[in-house]
Design a protein that fits this description.
By secondary structure, this protein is mostly beta strands. Helix content is about 0%, strand content about 40%.
Length: about 200
């Protein structure tokens, strides 16, 4: 560049800048791996734990859970002893779990819930228990008799070696009727009913 006085000045300019890269690090705040870090420490909710006698000398244990159970243990005590585990139970997820123990003895059976764990190992068992009595032996009946105590009345009498919950006696000939447990009175194991 030359001015009016003839002086020259060299001016050098550059229109380029040295390029540089900026690495921007992103953090989604999840601590890595996409895991929110939460831990299941809540045990399942168990309800309706019970034992029943469906037939013969068998007992059925049932319970309800609000989530899947991966480890179950129920101890049987009383007339016989045994342990039922998750492989004995039918059921999965939330709902009803049932298992049947095939017994060989009459008597009282108690089922106790020892373990009820979900997949995280949370145990909901707190000693829940229930009891059922099995009696497959029929009572012994003796001294069965029919008499005419007065007029046209008919009296039926017999003895039993144990309390009876259901009785049915058919009367036929001149008249027909059926006497049931509501018609009988009991005293010292002797049952008596009168048909008028």
């Amino acid at each position: 560049v030359t001015d009016t006085g003839g002086s020259q000045e060299l001016i050098a300019t550059s229109s380029s800048l040295s390029p540089f890269a900026v690495a921007e690090e992103s953090d989604d705040g999840d601590g890595g791996g996409g895991d929110d870090g939460s831990t299941d420490i809540t045990p399942p909710s168990i309800s309706s734990f019970g034992v029943s006698n469906p037939s013969g000398q068998d007992i059925t244990v049932s319970l309800n859970s609000d989530e899947d159970l991966t480890n179950i243990e129920v101890s049987i005590s009383g007339a016989e002893t045994a342990t039922l585990t998750e492989s004995d139970f039918a059921g999965s997820g939330s709902g009803t779990y049932t298992a049947t123990y095939e017994g060989d003895s009459d008597g009282e059976y108690t089922a106790t819930l020892d373990t009820a764990e979900d997949s995280a190992g949370n145990d909901a068992a707190s000693g829940q228990s229930d009891t059922v009595t099995i009696d497959t032996t029929p009572p012994t009946i003796s001294g069965f008799s029919v008499s005419n105590p007065s007029e046209q009345n008919v009296e039926v009498t017999f003895e039993s070696n144990e309390d009876l919950s259901s009785i049915s006696v058919d009367i036929s000939w001149a008249e027909t009727t059926t006497l049931t447990e509501v018609d009988f009175t009991e005293s010292d194991n002797t049952y008596t009913a009168t048909y008028d």
